[in-house]
Fold this sequence. Notes:
Elements: H1 3-15, E1 26-27, E2 37-39, H2 41-49, H3 53-65, E3 74-80, E4 84-89, H4 91-104, E5 118-122, H5 134-152, E6 156-163, H6 168-180, H7 196-204, H8 219-242, E7 249-252, H9 258-270, E8 274-277, E9 280-283, H10 285-288, E10 297-300, H11 309-322, E11 327-333, H12 337-349, E12 356-360, E13 363-367, E14 370-372, H13 384-391, H14 393-401, E15 409-412, H15 413-417, H16 424-444, H17 459-468, H18 471-481, H19 486-504, H20 512-535
Parallel strand pairs: 5-6, 5-11, 6-7, 11-12, 13-15
Antiparallel strand pairs: 1-2, 2-4, 3-4, 8-9, 9-10, 13-14
Helix pairs in contact: 1-3, 2-3, 4-17, 4-20, 5-14, 5-18, 6-7, 6-8, 9-11, 11-12, 13-14, 16-19, 16-20, 17-19, 17-20, 19-20
Amino acid sequence: MRIEQQLQAAIKRAAGKPAADLHVVLATPDHANQGDYASSIALQLAKVIGQAPMDLAKIIAERLIGDKKVKDEIERVEVASPGFVNIYLRDTWLARAAGKIVAAGKQYGTVQPAKKQKVQVEFISANPTGPLTLANGRGGFIGDSLARVLIAAGHDVTREYYVNDGGEQVLKLGASVMAQWGLKTPYEEEDFYHGDYVVGLAKSLEGMKPKSDDIPDDFLENVSREASKAMLAKIKHSVTKKARIPIDVWYSEKSLTRHATTETIKELKRKNLVEEREGALWLRLSALSDDKNNQDKVVVKSNGQPAYILPDIAYHYDKFVDRKFDRVIDIFGTDHQGHAKVLTISLEALGLKTPEIILMQFVRLVSDGKEVKMSKRAGTFVTLEKLLDEVGSDVARWFFIERTPNTHMVFDMSLAKDQSEKNPVFYVQYAHARCASILKKAAKEGKQEDSVNITLSHEAERTLIRALIRLPELVARISETLEVHLLTTYATDVAQAFSTFYHECPVLTDDKEQTASRLALVVATKAVLANTLGLMGIRAPEKM
Length: 544
């Protein structure tokens, strides 16, 4: 059981029956003199049982001190106005915890879930009609980091990219290529994709250009298929090679099983969720929700072709019914908010589970204080590959992960290119490299860590260990809340705690026992920094 779980259980025991159904929240105080953990349980219960918060907090504190199950962990408990219970951990426990981090090494931070789940994380899923952009990078790095955390939390995780290769947007890409060849298409100029990549596609596929004016009926479809295949190959290179994001499944919309689509339509009809009008099949959204803004949507067009929403419903039918995922996490751009709402309503009406949907706001790129205007349709945008060439994968990952997805993001190229400690990712990497340097120097001097006999003589040592022990709890929390941005905050906290320790607590001294003890803290810090960076897919360098 993790330390927070132990303390939460102890607090519930101390608070008694009224706290049985409460979720005990433990906060980490900003200052060491406020304890290692603080609970507001007395404030929560005061109104319920009609007792003054301070009086209740004192009772809980006394019971915690007398709880034999946590006597090895808790040194003392204090009460602070207006009713907080502040818990101080024993130095002996902190020392043992640091030793366990050293022993666990690369495995530290992994946790055992109450129940192992089969989880799918679908992210990026950009149409194969152009290169990946900054926004795709944001979703890609958040999705990959989230998958890494879920794996560390003990779940069976599948990273998936849904390839929209069956819609009209692919035909418009083919038409854009044909227009480069001077051929007529069923589309207008405003429908075409523009940019150097379209010119490049046209050149690479020029062998398909007809030798005469006699154009086959299926020519547009054939060109569209080859153009999207070529774009998908470039996307795969950007994702797996340049961005270093592993994808387990590239799921083609065209390969969506007929079974899933047919069964979805059958279920929609069986539950009276659709009706035929004007030769088309309509989803009765207006009847499924009290929201007057929910207008009925076409799921099958009058020509028999599926509308945009049907493949997505069928795709999730496949996820939950055919492939039996326990949990599905979809990462969409904020422009898909309406679509996500329709999808959720439809799945609920079908009696299926619904995905957890993360909506990402837009990304603005600022270079030298000026915003770079971007438009994918017009071909004026910065590709993900170009960004990675400029700043590197580590920096890009950090910058995209550190902001919550539901906030607009400004990507500052000047800061991203700064290789000093002003750049947050370099600050954390420097801390790891410093650990490695200390350990290398210690080895040359014949000095080794002793993780069994750690002794604490300075507050900076205690503060460092308090930071290090939070990683398993953080992994457990993110696996539930999906707040992956907390990793950057935590990594910075650990780096700052280590910096204070480094400057205030000399490691390599003539005091053999103290040196061995502090070297153990350096080893523990190095492991935590490496593991935290690893959860973000960021490298932990041995030297910089």
